[in-house]
Design a protein that fits this description.
CATH class: Mainly Beta
Shape: extended
Number of helices: 2
Number of domains: 1
Radius of gyration: 22 Å
Distance between the termini: 46 Å
Strand order of the largest sheet: 2-1-7-8-9-6-3
CATH architecture: Beta Barrel
Length: about 200
């Protein structure tokens, strides 16, 4: 059995740890390790108009796509000398990609028409308020070099993609905060430019 070295992943020290909240099942998932990069995307979609003879294609603003946030998170064994490795925290992630999670009140009952859990997330993004997301992808990659004596994983990578719910109250609040914060950003930028010394990179 291999042993896992904590120095291989970046730890946060005293700062706010990485977290994601499963609001459907009331489970907080957190980790001392962090994603090294958070991809934050939103498509801007234009409609093209074909006009015979033109040397270019006119475009017209059509709509915007949904905002998606994606990242990869390393998960390591949480307790020393555990025969079950990191199966506990991985079970919490497993709940995010299933809609048949029974409640503690009814451990053996699950409705097939239940939606998949929604999550609250903002860690590593620029939005001031945490936002509500749908879980579009929650894939695991288990490194078989790090397993317990019973064959359970000690080192896994969780690959997640979240899609913003723009119908939530949190997003409505963020829309207002965004406009106010953008003005503050202008002041911050001008202040930094005026106080900058040396090269701009």
């Amino acid at each position: 059995m291999s042993s896992f070295n904590l120095k291989k992943v970046k730890l946060r020290g005293a700062k706010l740890p990485w977290y994601i909240y499963n609001e459907t099942n009331f489970i907080l998932i957190t980790s001392p390790t962090i994603p090294t990069t958070v991809e934050d995307k939103k498509n801007i979609i234009f409609a093209e108009s074909t006009v015979m003879g033109l040397n270019y294609t006119p475009i017209t603003p059509a709509r915007n796509g949904n905002r998606t946030v994606s990242f990869s998170l390393p998960i390591i064994k949480r307790t020393p000398n555990s025969a079950f490795g990191n199966t506990g925290i991985m079970a919490a992630f497993e709940m995010l990609r299933n809609n048949d999670n029974p409640s503690l009140m009814s451990l053996f009952g699950a409705n097939q028409f239940n939606p998949n859990p929604k999550v609250i997330y903002h860690w590593g993004t620029h939005t001031l308020l945490p936002q509500e997301y749908f879980v579009k992808r929650c894939d695991f990659s288990h490194d078989t070099r790090f397993v317990t004596k019973t064959g359970h994983t000690e080192y896994s990578i969780v690959n997640m993609e979240l899609e913003l719910d723009e119908n939530s109250l949190l997003y409505e609040a963020e829309r207002v905060v965004r406009v106010i914060n953008a003005r503050k950003g202008l002041v911050d930028s001008v202040s930094q430019i005026l106080s900058m010394k040396g090269r701009p990179y």
